[in-house]
Amino acid sequence: MARWKHERGKLSIPVLEQLVDVELEEDGSLSVMPRQASPVLNLKAFHALDVEGSKAFARDAAEQLQRVIDDPDILFSPFTKKTFETILKSAAARLSASGVYVPDEEGRDETNRKLSVADDTLRISDTWVLYARNRAEDFRKADISKLIRSVEGAEKIEEIPEAGVRFVTPPSDEKIYGGGGIDLGQASWRAGVGEGSGVADLQPKAAHDFFFPLATNADQEAIAYRLEEDPAVHVMGPPGTGKTHLIGNIISHYLACGKRVLVTAKSAEALVAVREKLPEGIRALAISVIHSDREGAGQLEEAIQMLASEAKQINVAQVSREIGDKQNALADVSDRIKAIDVELIDYARRNLEKVSAAGSDVLPMDLARTVVEGQSTFLWFTDDLDLGARFEPQFGDGDIRDARAARIALGDDIAYRSQDLPIAADLPDMPNLLAAHRDLLAANLAGDRARSAKR
Fold it and tell me: What is the DSSP string of 360-426?
């Protein structure tokens, strides 16, 4: 705020203006939230008083303010002094030789946010004030009212311009373009895993194909399913949970299905956020009617120009073929998704169907956990097994019982159980083995004769 009793008049004006939204909270307090609109300099009063150097300062300050606005690391805010303090100090110094920037006054209490008294010294304060201004009438509303009066006053339909007739006529349901493929509004069957943990929950469930351009999660898809059944769905969530993200997806889906969508919000910024979530191909068709006249007119003009350009260049036959090709591609993707879902259900069923082990029925995952936890007990298993057919056991329970009985019967006679058996290639061949056998017999016979002779 600038306050000054100039020789040609009294000033009490804001030097910088920032549009804000003010909301009344439940406890009676007011919340002041800056809009996304850029701040503006207000120096016209200084120009009107022929203050020397005011126009030159206005040019320099406008450039400085624009640099602040364009710098993503600063982000102008009336609550952040570093984003505007330099401009206010410059204004105090350049608009009057005796000008003062109030926070720099000697002995000033920093907690005192009251406005300075207006005297012959220009004082510019960093204190902000709120101005409530009446909104100018929206020119679009005036045009619509004029159109309504013209329609109501016309005696024949021919008296109304064709554009006006189309404006008040509901759109036709006739399909302009042909093409095969899928019907975007029809339901399809998609397999899904239920909320339970049993095999009975693994059943395909009725669903719609949602044409979402942005990534989504299960919670957001659940909201979309609810909208198919109930036209009024109340969704609450803290910032960052993806509400705007979901709204952008739902708008895109409904437009793809040939529906019209109206979005309302408490502020223009919320509509801007939703508009930015839309694909670029349809973003120009989203017009915010609560923006300023200039912004709203710009968006409306952009949409009209895009439609006019598309209408002039469109080739109906080519577009029909492209629509058919893309719908067929969507159908192929949908079929692939169904096949993957069936595979996932099969995998889930394998892990959720109980198997018999140690006399009880357990889940495969529990059995695997038991094996992992007791792996130290089975470290002597050197086989690297898998689930292939070649590793299927070649013996039955009877063979295992016989082997166990034989092991018990042999007992300590199994002397070689901890020894390494020789390799067959290391054993002597048959001729050498027979020769050794004959030598052994001869040696035994000679020994017997020697013992007989001694007797």
Answer: EEE-HHHHHHHHHHTGGGGTT------SSGGGS-S--HHHHHHHHHHHHHHGGG-TTTTSPPPPGGG
